[in-house]
Every structure is written in structure tokens, then in C-alpha cells.
Amino acid sequence: MSQPFRRVDGGRVDRGRTVTFQFDGTAYEAHPGDTLSSALLANGVRIVARGPYTGRPRGVYGIAAEEPNAFVQVDSGPGEPMVRATTLEVYDGLVARSLAGKGELRAEPDDSRYDKTWAHCDVLVVGAGPAGLAAAHAAAVTGARVILADERPSPGGDLLGGRAHLDGRPAMDWVADTHARLAALPEVRVLTRTTVTGFYDGNFLVAVQRRTEHLGLAAPAHVARQRLWHIRAGRVVLATGAHERPILFPDNDRPGIMLAAAAAGYAWRYGVLPGRRAVVAGAHDGALWAAVELVDAGVELAAVLDVRSLPEGQVHRALRDRGVVVSAGHGVVGTDADASGVLSAVWIARTDGEARRIPCDLLATSGGWNPAVHLYSQAGGRPVWSLDHAAFVPGDPVPSVWCVGAAAGTFDLADALAEGGEAGWQAAAATGEEPLPPATDSVSGTGAPAACWLTGPVDERADSVFVDLQRDATLRDVRRAVGAGMVSSEHVKRFTTAGTAADQGRTTGVTTVGILAGLLGLPVGAVGTTTYRPPYTPISFGLLAGRDRGRLLDPERRTPMHERHEAAGAVFEDVGQWKRPWYYPRPGEDLHRAVERECRAARESVAMMDVSTLGKIELRGPDVGEFLDRVYTNRFSTLRVGQCRYGVMCLADGMLFDDGVTARIAPDHYHLTTTTGNAAKVLDWLEEWLQTEWPSLRVSATSVTDQWAAVALVGPGSREVLSRLAPALDVSAAAFPFLTVRDATVAGIPARVFRISFTGELSYEINVPAWYGLALWDAVAAAGVTPYGTETMHVLRAEKGFIVAGQDTDGTVTPHDAGLGWAVSTAKHFIGQRSLTRTDTARADRKRLVGLLPADPLVVLAEGAQLVVDADAPTPVPMLGHVTSSYHSAALGRSFALALVAGGLTHRGETFYAVDSGRAHPVVVTDPVFYDAEGARRDG
């Protein structure tokens, strides 16, 4: 293998080492330090993509983030779609393929690590070109905390691989010295391979750091592939540089056509000839200097064109010394291609002259530079059109933000250094004498740039003038948009799709605005740019998720008894991040048979359940009773020590939020329980009111969910089992009545025992410190008690008409709707009380809780099934409500359900139809309490 377009020497690549990569199934060689685009050019690969709609071949066009064509699919390693070949660093074993406008997601999961981090600094400098380095150094020497971020592998910006001089020596020597000085300062952090993608309120910026992608297959697995930086900066210096823009003409999309500065950059930064015989066409001095760089690199210049007609200057003399004459007032009017579609010749002409054909394999064009004002715009700045720069430049300053260097339209190296140093000094809020920037060997210009958007006879060939290469949007599309009455650049962008591709119009966005202004007969500034929104470059979903994905997306919580559940063969379900036993199948049992056995144990003898997952909140302070009166719908300040009470919480809109039992442990100490799924939400709710509405209340709230393990002992035999486990505790009905709490020693373990029931049976909830949970479970199980899971719990509670907040409620259910009006006090104020007095919340036709008995006792209704009066009525059929809970009951010997129905129990005895998946089952409306309506079993 060889690299036919690699120069003999030069470039910032490691020529002492060679790596092998594959592109479109062919193996090639490159050197460390190459990007994929430079490596492809070195190997003579000209076609790197195709137009997504036209299928026309496309080649490398730019050298950095402005690239509109060379997007590839990376298949090696974790893989990634839509990667810019101009920023993808080549590594040994890289496998990539060309794309036509869009990539594809891999079916395999990405196992790479992605991290997030947060940082604060006094000064953030974005961009490590000459202006950015000067700004960072000026700020850093004051002792300020400085972060310098740049998307390239090393600092230097456009000086990388260039031949500029500072103070009589190569500019890269100054870059290396400045970088070394910054690295030696303790309060400075230099982030390379880091793109700042978003600027948000309060000087909050987001940056993407690529940490291991350049290492490829050799990247260590324990190091994050990318890191998402969240940076809060006191002040920000934007040294983001500028994007080169092209001049458009018919057939301007052929491989072999690229931006002039990019072509020169490949020659000197990477030691690659982008072509052997070139035509250079421009509208500013920078294009002519790019021609100098190309001819010095060994490229034959067939012609150098300048659309301007200006007096000869230094750059003209430099070209003439090299045997090249600039053709002033000339432009490109068309191109030819060979059989593969690659550039073979350029047609040039004066504005009013005859065209002539020049064979070549490279056309380097440049219509000027567009300052990269994206972050400035995101910060609230508004770019304005500058005739002097023929570009949009930052307008009014944004507080605490400085734009310097090319980002501000300052393209002279000496001026950029001075501007950067001054901005860095001011951003650090330093005092004293400002250090002078290094001297530079300045290059004089010959005149102002021209705002040139189009050359050539474009009227009859508008469909071959591409204004957005990645979207295949053409001049004809822009004209159609104007013909349809569109005058806004935002509307034209959406009509033509120009500027909506992955490069977000960085290359031709301003050119499109210039063309639109010409068609409308308006000044360019009057049309204005489209809105620059974050992110500046795409961010992968993997990076946004960070470590919050896979098993870490939702933390998996396990109770102290989890290993016993596993040993018993429990099938688990996820409830509020907890792994809870769903049921405990014995050999030969399915879900139905296991649940029926567990239910019979709870109803007929004794059963046990792990209820450690219930939310538990300790409330302490002299005002806890008053606080709970305001939070719950019923009163808690009258609760005596040692007693418990069921309570209901409402949101401010009067809708039921959560329910649970609260016990008074001591005069200023309460133990509040919540549903498993709402534990964190309830604590947040309590803290919100304590901290923002009632800070005068002397109350502290602490989550103790993880500090307690709990076992519910349920059934007619539970009192006898507890008496054996806690012989010192008087468990008689008189000494330990319903809704009380006792401290006791259970199985030798200090415990807090609650006499409460979620099944309607005689029940106790035994709470012990979490590290004793396993011992407690073993002790209860040793007494011959049957364990049961959440499915059995639901059957037992639904038989009693007990609701589950979030299952039998949906955010539109009041306590009255749920049949809990008895728990709503009319003698005190509480959160949501006023909303409950609204006409809407008191109307008779609200959906209220009812019971349902299917006509077929073997049919278990689908939860969520809609209820209608007539299953055969023509559509649309009015829906009266829906099924919220549905089970088969061993105690009832049939199926049953709970539902929310408009009008509630006013429909008692009526027949409705539960409709699900095209099936309609007749059901009879009943009371929601199906078992032991008198509550006789609660006390044993």
C-alpha cells in the first residue's frame, strides 16, 4: 500500500509510524495524527459520500467542523453514525464507510462509558487559536481560575501546520511555549478535543470532550469514551475562529472542489496534496494566500482567479515571484468531471467575457470568512452585517462575554493577539500594567473582501448550483421559495432544507442569506441570519445519558431479605426501583395457582410479606402535629402517643396524591409511611411546604426507608405466631388494639410493631433496623409462615376495596371519588381543601370508585378496559369509566374488579360492558368492598 498524494515531508503527523484502516471495504495506510479525511486524500480517494437525493458523488470539502460532505459510518469499536471524516482521528483498525446524508444506529448496545462532570471557573476561553491562547494566558497570570477548551487535539488553531511567524520565529514555537506556561499554572485547565456546544443563561456552557476515540481499539475500557462538561463561568472569551465560505457556480459539488484554506491546510498541517494541478478562485486576500501555500507545497497552479479588480499588492507579488499571475475580475462559471464524477476541468471567464476550459484535479474556492458567532448568538448576541468584512460579525456586546480574533472579524494575526490578550485581562478583572502581545511579521492586504455569492451563468442552470451540499438543496429551490412568497431566512431554510443538515449551514448558510437578499432586492443585513441554536455540533444520546443507562438508568434497590426471596424461587417485579417478590411458585405452580395458595394462607391461617419497601419518614419537632394537619385531609394533632391513623394527602388541586399510616412515637416524634412508589415524591412535597410556605414551623423530615426492614404478619393465626416470637409483648386485642404501635423485642431483635392491616385480616407490621431484616425474616419463616408476594397483596387489598394510589387513581381522583370522604375533615384547613369546594369537584357525575362483577366468573377483566353502556352502539361510544384493578379471588371463588365510573354507586346493580381489544364483557356494578364488609376479621 502507498499514499500517492502524501508529500515527502512536512505536516504534523508521525511519519515514523504507520496505521492501517479500512474505508468502503478497502484497506489503506495512514500516520498517527491524520484525520480520516486527510488519510483518504493522501491515498487518492476522492469520492467520500453521495448526495442523499441526487446520488451525485461528493468529496472532502473542508478541514474541520464546517465539513458538509464527508460524513461516515464508523463500524469499528462501539461504532457511530454520521461522524465527520475531518474530525475523526485515524487509528489502527479503524473501519468506516461512506454515507449518503444519513447514518444508521447499530443493533448492538454501546458498552462504552460516558461521563458527566461539573466545573466552575473565573474565565472560560473557547478556542485555543492565537487569540484564545493570548486571552487564556493574560487571564491566567492574574491567578484567575481559567479553563481553555478547543476542539482540536492540540492548541494552535489555524496556526497548526502553518508557516506564520511571531517575533521572527515560527508561530508554532510561540504556541508551544504558551501552552507550556499555561500547563504549569495550577489554576489553569486546558481541555483539548473538547467542543463547547451550548451557551445558556448565567454563563452556563456545555462542552463535549472526546477522551479515547483517537485511541480506537486500544482505548482502555475503564476510561470514559466521552465526557460531558457542565461549566459555570464568571466570564467567557469566545475565540471560536471563523468558517470559510465558498463561491457558488454550476456543478459546484464535484469531488475535487474544496475550500481554499482547507486545501492549503491539508498540504501543510497533514503533509497531503489535495490535488496536483489546481485552480484557485476567491473574493478576498485569504484565497490568494492559500494559493501561495499550495504552490509552495508542490501543487501546480493552473490559474488563480480573483473576482475583484484591485491594484497589485504583496500577495500578488508573492505569487508573481512564484511564476503565477492573478486573473483579476475572473470567476468560475462551470466544471467538468471524468467518468467517475470527479473534477477534471474548470471553466473560467470574466464577467463579460468568453469562458475557457482549464484541466485540473483541484478547485480551491473561497468567498471569505464567516466569524463563528454561534455561541455568541446563543448567549443572546445578535450578529450584524459588516460591509468591511463582508460577513456577519458580533453586534452589541453581551455582558461578561468577549469575542476576539476571527470570531470578531479580526483576521490580522497581530491584531488578534492583542485583542485576545486585552480580553483575557479584562475578563479576569485584573489591575495593573497589561502585558504586550508578541510582535508578529504582519502581512499587508490589498483590499477589502467582496461579498460574492455566485459566479457563472446560473439562470438556466440553477438546479446544478448547490447551496447546501448535504441536503442537495439548490439555487432553484431558493428561487422557488421566494416565488412562493417567502421573505424570511427562517422560512426559506425550512422550505429548501438548506442549513438543516448536520453541518447546520456552517459552510453555505451565510451564502444562502446573500443569495436570498439578492433575489429580494434587500441588503444582506436586512435579511439576517437564521437562529443559531445549541448544540453547535451533535451530541450523542449515550453521552447525554452518561452513566444513567442500562442497569444504572433506574437504580435497582433490594431489601435486606432479597437473598431469601431468591432462594425461595420468587418471581420479581419492579416497584418504585425496588425488586419486590411478585409470587413464590412451588414446583408445578403457575402465577394463578401460587397466588391462590398464598391468598388462602393469609385468609385461613397465617402468611408473611416483605414490606420493607414502604416509604418511611421520621418527623420531629414541636409543630409536627400542626404540620400534618395541614398536609393530610384528616386531623393528626389529636393523635395520642402510641396510636396510628390512616391519612390521605391531596395536591393543591384537591386530587389524591398519596395515602398511608402515621404513628405518633413520642410527643414530638411521628413515623409516617407512604406507598412504595411515592416515597421520594412525598418527602419532596413535605420539604417544599416546610421550606417555601411554612418555614416558621419547627419540623424536620428525614427519610428512613432504608434504615428499617419490615415484615407484615397476616392472617387469623398471626397473633399466636407473634406471641411466640415476642413473649414479653401482650398481643391481646385489649392490650394491643387496632391502629396502635408498640416497642418490643421480636425474635431477640429490638422492634417497632404496628397493629395495622392492608388485607382486612388480623395483621402486624414488624419493623426492625435494616441489618436485622434477614434474621427477622428467618425467624418468622421458621414459625411455619407462608410468604406471599405483591400479586397476592393486591388481591387481598382489592377484595376489601382498599385503593393503591397511582393504580386506582390517576391524578383526577379526589378522596371523595375514591370512597375516602370519611377521611376528609370539615373542621380544619389542609392542602387542596379549597379545590374540593369547587363545583366541578363536587358534581354528581364525577368518576367514582365502584366494584365490578363480570357475568362470567372466570373472566379476569383487563386493567384499563373501558366501560360502556351498549357494546353494540355505533361509534363513537361514550365511555363511562375504566377498570383500575382486576383479579381472581380464591375467597370469592370468582373474578372481580375495581373501577372508576361516572356517577359511581348511583349505577349499583346496573350492567355495563368492559371493552378491551375488541372484546366486550358484561359486568355488574357493585360496592367496592367484596369481602368481610363488616370488618369482623380485622381483630381476629
UniProtKB/TrEMBL annotation:
Domain of life: Bacteria
InterPro entries per the UniProt record, alphabetical: 2Fe-2S-bd_N, FAD/NAD-bd_sf, FAD/NAD-binding_dom, GcvT/YgfZ/DmdA, GcvT/YgfZ_C, GcvT_C, GCVT_N, SoxA_A3
Domain named Aminomethyltransferase C-terminal: residues: 847-932
GO molecular function: oxidoreductase activity
Assigned keywords, A-Z: Oxidoreductase
Keyword Aminoacyl-tRNA synthetase attached: no
Gene3D superfamilies given in the database record: 2Fe-2S iron-sulphur cluster binding domain, sarcosine oxidase, alpha subunit, N-terminal domain, FAD/NAD(P)-binding domain, Probable tRNA modification gtpase trme, domain 1
The UniProt record lists the keyword Nuclease: no
Pfam families per record: Fer2_4 (PF13510), GCV_T (PF01571), GCV_T_C (PF08669), Pyr_redox_2 (PF07992), SO_alpha_A3 (PF17806)
Domain FAD/NAD(P)-binding: 122-384
Residue ranges constituting the GCVT N-terminal domain according to the UniProt record: 561-828
Residues in SoxA A3 domain copies: 464-547
Family: Belongs to the GcvT family.
PANTHER family documented for this protein: AMINOMETHYLTRANSFERASE, AMINOMETHYLTRANSFERASE, MITOCHONDRIAL
Protein name per its UniProtKB record: Sarcosine oxidase subunit alpha
